[in-house]
Amino acid sequence: MIDKISKLKEQADALMKLKGNTKGSELLTLRKYVETKYGKEGIEKLEKAMAELGYPLIFDEIKPTYWYPEALNDLAMIVAKEIFEWKDLFEFGYNSPVFSFGVKVLVRFLPLPLFLKEFPNVWRKFVDVGEIEIPDFSLEKKYVIVWLKDYKFHPDMCRYFEGFFLRVSEYFIKSEKVTIEETKCSFQGDPYHEFIVRWK
Amino acid sequence: MEKENLNLENLLKTKEKELEQLKEELERAKEDLEDLEVYVEEFFSFLPFPVCTLNAFGLIINANKAFLRLVQYDLLEIVGQYFNKLFREEKEIEKIIEALPQKEIVENKEATLLTKDKKEIIVNLSFGARKDKEGIFIGSFVGMLDISELKRFQNELEEMVKERTEELEEKIAELEKFRQIAVGRELKMVELKEKVKILQEELKKYKKQ
Lengths: 200, 209
What we know:
The complex is a heterodimer of chains A (200) and B (209). Chain A is of the alpha+beta class. Chain A folds into 2 domains: 2-86, no CATH class; 101-199, H-NOX domain (Alpha-Beta Complex), CATH 3.90.1520. Chain A is 53% helix and 18% strand. In chain A, the strands form 2 sheets. Chain A has a 4-stranded antiparallel β-sheet, covered by helices on one side. Chain A is globular. Chain A starts with a helix and ends with a strand. Chain B has helices at residues 2-46, 65-71, 75-78, 90-103, 148-208; strands spanning 51-54, 60-63, 105-114, 120-131, 137-146. Chain B is rod-shaped and about 165 Å long. Chain B has 3 domains: 1-46; 48-146, PAS domain (Beta-Lactamase, 2-Layer Sandwich), CATH 3.30.450; 149-209. Chain B is α+β, with helices and mostly antiparallel strands. Chains A and B meet through helix 4, helix 5 and helix 7 of A and helix 1 of B.
């Protein structure tokens, strides 16, 4: 494990230089997910790995309404992916709304057009970096385009957002088959991340 | 000039004090919110009867431990499933959910829950609509009571009453038969007595002659 972690050191140092904050509730969502899947041992493993990287994270000290570096949140996810051998962050992204107090309690499950209007503000409640835009959607043609602008932390996060946006879409779209695809990516030279949600 | 500076300094001090107070208030509000979160989560988790929350079209968003125990799914499996699909009466429950924005509360709806391991449990469902401050329907709370034991007891009782009724009906039929026989014999006796009486009178007449 030490080898895996030391490989991450360079990435972690670069990541931690990026500015932007997220609510502690997001870090606690990762804690709940890891605890559910791997128990308290999993949390200890993750905290230990973070400390080894030089960016200690003690979940017990995290307060849900306080702001913490977004980079720390992303780094914790990337470290979890490494130590628990996740293929990518999609599954965690998809399941994180299940554990997020913010999503369960603070998000209003409005009809889709109303929610899409509110979505950029919902984003801002939890993250003070990056911007969400909905440039186009059609209930008739069954698609929504989501832009995530000015957010370039780590390429692993693209899969996280794919999963996260897919679950959130399922909460607002009445369909048994909802799909998502990242069609533009800041890490591929595009000006923003673009996700297209479609359903049947 | 000096006076102006002094005024500005005082104004600055007052504003700094106000800012400090606002920060303290914000801090307290954050702490209150955290306490509230802990309270809500603990209470939800403690509730000994199954409860879940649904979005506006009946998708499960959250469920407490008692709910998970009853349906035998874990949280990751159950969140995102359509609530009505957990029941034999799928269509009927879908209609109830669709009507919730108007009805607001639906109580005591009996249904058959299909658990993950295909067990059937009779439950009593209660739905309560959730609306935001603008009155827009945003989902519902559902409470579910396992009444399978009660139902079993009720069925046993009904069976027992049925058996007793049948026994009583049999007894009544027997009694009726006996009554008919007894009454028949009595009538025959009366008839015979009448005949004896007539014969006795006739015998008396012959003796006189």
